[in-house]
Write a structure and sequence with these properties.
The complex is a heterodimer of chains A (about 600) and B (about 300). With about 600 residues, chain A is α+β, with helices and mostly antiparallel strands. Chain A is built from 17 helices and 30 strands. With about 300 residues, chain B is mainly alpha-helical. Chain B contains 19 helices and no strands. The longest helix of chain B is centred in the first third of the chain and has 18 residues, at about 10-25. The chains are: A alpha+beta (about 600), B mainly alpha (about 300). Chains A and B meet through helix 14 of A and helix 12 of B.
Amino acid sequence: MHLTAWASCLGAMAMLTVACGAGSQLGSAFSTEWQNDGGRSIAALQRELSAPTAPAGAGVVVGVNGAGVVAVTLSGQRWDRPGRLDSRPVIAGDVVLLSGGGRLTALAAATGAELWSIESGGRALRGAGDDGQLTAASLGALNGGRSRLVVVERSGAVRLSAEPEVEIGAPAVLGGVVFVPWANQYVSAIDGATGAERGRLLTRRQVSRALTLGDGLYFGESELLRFDEQVGQAASGGGSLAVLPRREFPGNPRWFTPGAEVLPPKASAPDRVRRFALPKGTGKSGVSFDGDRFAVTYFRVAMGASAKDGVVRWARSMPKDVLGGAAVSGGFVLCSEDGKVSVIDGQTGAESASLALSGPLESCEAHGGSYQVPSKAAERTLAEQITEIVASRDAQMVPAQRFLMQELVRLPDDSVTQALIELATRPDAPPLLGKDAREALAGRRSGAEAMLAALEREYDFLEDVLLPPPVGPLADALLAMKETRAAPALARHLNDPANAADDIMRAARALEQLASASELSELQTFFALYRATAVEAPIVQATISVARAIARTGGAEGLALLRQAAKDPFTHVEVKEAIDALEAPTEKTAGR
Amino acid sequence: MVKRAGAPGRRGQRRSRIWARSLALTLGAASLVGAYESGSLTVSAAAAQAKLDAAKLKKQLESQDPAEIREALEQVTKAGTAAKALVPTLNALLTRGTRADLLPSLIEATGRVEDVSSSAPLAPYLRHRTPAVRQAAVKALSRTKGPEAIKALTRGLRSQDAVVRGVSASALGDLGAKAALPDLQRAFDQKVLEAAVSIGQLCDGASCDEFLKRLGKVRFDVMTAGLDQMLFRPASSMKDEAKLNVVSRLRALGTAEASRYLTDVAGRWPKDYSARVKQALEEAAKATSKGASAPSDDDEDEEDDE
């Protein structure tokens, strides 16, 4: 690494790359001809830097509205700064960086006071890092390319301004060393004092970001490599990794966007579908997540899941789309389109506190810093939380609702069964959700009382009950539970034409085993009505099931009825065959 | 089934025809119009008198030959009430069930015989999955009558089948099913318009008042179906005071269509009916005509008549 013009750049406020001779400054820092050192240089640097810890920085939420930037610290201090931006603000430790109007500006995160401002060289801000002394920022063209790296002192003195030929990602600074990811597989460590390349990380994992999170420095994008004693092993696929469960969530939320992209000031759909997690070291060679939680957002839904297995532990419906947020010690800070900032207890999902920004917001960024989320007990059970979201009438939420439905059915609560019944019978439920609810109901093995109560309802035009209960799924579940109390209602539903043919078939199948002589009248009526008129396959099958139920419960009279039907040429051929099959063992037994 | 009270004049006849058409369309049975206009909705007397070979027909009905059964059912349908001897056979067939293509004919034939004992075996067919079977059953039940029919038809008001609801509502009035009045009122509120006629046929003080409360809220031409029934009921069924109350409510309504309706009813008022009510009708018609300027749906029809 040669930084020949390094000294001449000190103190320059509007340093152009030409003046600094950036290309030559960087020397071989971004050279692809670098020989893989097996992690030795980065490991050596880690040992050198093991004393300095990453600065926690200020807890702050920064939003972009129509007028400019609005911010509130997590302790409630507000500030704002008008003006147009050409990219999303970046929070780096105690500094908030903005680019717009041809300048890159640093503000104190706590107060909004301007720390320095330099020319951006016609580029927009990609990412930045800060260690309390130096700020490193990467910039680039809006559509990619034209990378620029600047390193600036608190005073505003530009230590480095360079335009590497490679695409660089979001940098971090630790102990005066600037870590710059590039080409998705390298992180070059550049000494802030000498300009020398102090080491280089080669990793086989996607790396476009270097970032300080919680107590550590990490490199990566979809998963993070911790800068610890194991970092030298990254070249051979090792290292301490922070990896979130691979479980699919609605909309395939990302943890971090690619660090080499310029994010526009206005958030788009991917910003509303995110993961938030705070990794932390667990000793010499391990990474866990704060509180064993990560949060996922999907527009107006936020959920917290176990970082071990991805199982949802809480879910919340937010008043507006969540545009951004951050994982914070003890929980999460989520920022909604309307400017509301919700501080969420990571364990319970309860809202511990809330703050407000002047909305509506176009985008929002948050940084937890040293803030600790106050704990708050859960206000409702998980089943209740999910039920509320699943029941909401917002078509955009359907993917989240369907996902949460899968979580809901894992819970044994009786209230879940009731919620599924309501969803399956709601006339305005989105079809996919109604279908999911029916499938889930069929698999329930708890909540029999709710199921029996639901079966008592039937289509009634006068009472405005215009959708019958989900008879088929309820029949499946009650059959599996051997719930004979269901037989009278199931038998009545057989003869209600408002029920779908498939539901009738499943009710009849359940009655094969659950019916008693008390249901004989309904069974015989159904048999008379359909033995010779059934056309739809499910009704033919239902008639066969009913014949079996009559044979089992109807005694001699029932058998006589079936024999008569079997002889009648008008009886559906499949029904006749089924009756003959019923009779066969009896005849054999009689013959012995 | 579709009745128009009183002694209608030319314009009244026209309005009655319009009503019959409207109801018939609602019921999905356009043939009712023709039946109404020819003055009969029952099987002709000649057919009823036809000599039947009951034994032969019974044998045909119990055969397993669809053609034989179909032929027998046609004869029973033509014979109507004269085929009483075949009721047990028909009922047994209904209880046992038969082929889909024969079922509507079997149900219709049973209805034509008009035997109350057929209501119980017919009732389950009101809930058959095939609409044509349900609709045949509801019409048959309106002929076989009796408590079982009333029970089934009252339940028919709750059906998901609009035709079943409509025919049930009409039939309950014909069958004098006063116990069904609360359900008929609810059905009317749920836009089962056929219930209006039955409510008008069956209501007494409080239930008539409940119906009249809808004046001004429900389309006037729908209300008149029930009002007509109330006003033209014989004195033994509805006293003058109750009819005067109807007139008074119409007068209070004071709309152009109320005025025209009052004039129309006064014109149709039978000579042997209460003179007091007729006088009230005429006074109300005169009083409301002053404010009668708003056009109504049947203005055009009336112009044609004139």
